[in-house]
Amino acid sequence: MGWPLLGNMWSFVRAFKSQNPESFISNLKQRYGETGVYKIKFFWKPCIIVCSPELCRKVLTDDEQFQLGYPLSNLVCNGTPLDCISSSVNKWFRRLTAATGLNQQESLSSYIGSIEEIVIGTLEEWSKTNKPILFFPEVNKIAFKVMMTIFLGSGTNDTSIESMEKYYTDVFGGLFCMPINIPGFAYNRAVKAREMLMKGIRGVLKERKHDVLNSKRGLIDFIREADDPNGEELDDELVAIILLLFLIAGRESSGRVAAWATVFLHDHPRVLQKAKEEQEEIMRRRSPSQKGLTLDEIKQMKYLSKVIDETLRIRTNVFALFREAKIDTYLHGYFIPKGWKVLVWQSAVHMDPEIYPNPQQFLPSRWDDFKPKGGAFLPFGAGSRTCIGADLAKLEICTFLHHFLLNYKLEQVNPGGPVKYLPASPDPADNCPAKVIKIP
């Protein structure tokens, strides 16, 4: 269980501060064997790590024995009287989003125009700047704006979105850090940023009440019109929390992956050329009268889909998915007491050489005729809590890469620089300063 008080946090931080975060799990395997299940102390609590495909799938799909167990979820929910991440609310929310058609073909098709408008305008703006931009934060801003547009609809002020994005970044940075609420620490910044972010969201919701006729409806309008699971009208605080949860899921799974995929493509010229040729072929088949991408064209991006899957594998957004034992239970023959955290360490599965030979290499071709077994590929989780917006995230990524590959190239200032893996997700340590150059 590691050191007194600290538990295994020191060895975890040391591994993730290095350029080899997989060493944390590798050390456990070396010391205790290839069991796929390990006992540690993490965030001052006893925890179980699972890192084999079978056990990962078991934990994520067994709602009878395991529930959500993120250590700092109160940073998001802030003591709301309704448990915003409970099983009953999760089921209700999934039914609601299904009714509003979030992942239905018609809805996905309707989002493409808004996404394209944001992507095309931003890429053009980048290409006109004479100095390098910080590529990763800027791509994340695109993802944030797309999410806000889809969920709030049109009519939201760009300045409001930009200020909320800054606060959101600090909130996300506090989700996986130690909860030290003292000025100067990341958690303290996150608490303050949450207050400002929620204030901004509530302000936008208030504006929409008075300007419904001049705004295009968004998903949030359908949510506000629905009753909560108890049959009562949703208040603005809970609606704002729901939006914040969507932003956490949506921005991290689209912005970061789109940015990493762009970098990987430019670091691998042959892969870049093949991906670009696919996009050019799609354009050649397009009718002269057609304006913009269609969902059918995105479905034709077979090679680009492999690029995205390979990016998701190598750059898993978070190192683990947190669950908690609801009852005393057994897993793989080991007893797990009620209340213990269970960490589904999907990044270890994605980097397992037994499943993915040469796992450190970026090889989209590994997905040719390859279908990973259950639990071996978990970028969007599994079971009842599989990411609701997975299809939407892939739609955003494909749209961004389509326009970037056809019209732009990336010139990094410091290619191949170090990666920081904390507080939660892998990003270039320098945020990837780069020039976006328009191709004549």
From TrEMBL:
It is a single-pass membrane protein. It holds the Pfam family p450. GO terms for biological process: brassinosteroid biosynthetic process; brassinosteroid homeostasis; sterol metabolic process. Its cofactor is heme. The keyword Oxidoreductase applies. One of its GO terms (cellular component) is endoplasmic reticulum. SUPFAM superfamilies: Cytochrome P450. Heme binds at C387. PROSITE patterns: CYTOCHROME_P450 (PS00086). It comes from the Eukaryota. GO terms for molecular function: ent-kaurenoic acid monooxygenase activity; heme binding; iron ion binding. It is found in: Membrane. Keywords: Heme, Iron, Membrane, Metal-binding, Monooxygenase, Oxidoreductase, Transmembrane, Transmembrane helix. Its main location: membrane. Belongs to the cytochrome P450 family. This is Ent-kaurenoic acid oxidase 2. It comes from Hibiscus syriacus (Rose of Sharon). The lineage of its organism: Eukaryota, Viridiplantae, Streptophyta, Embryophyta, Tracheophyta.
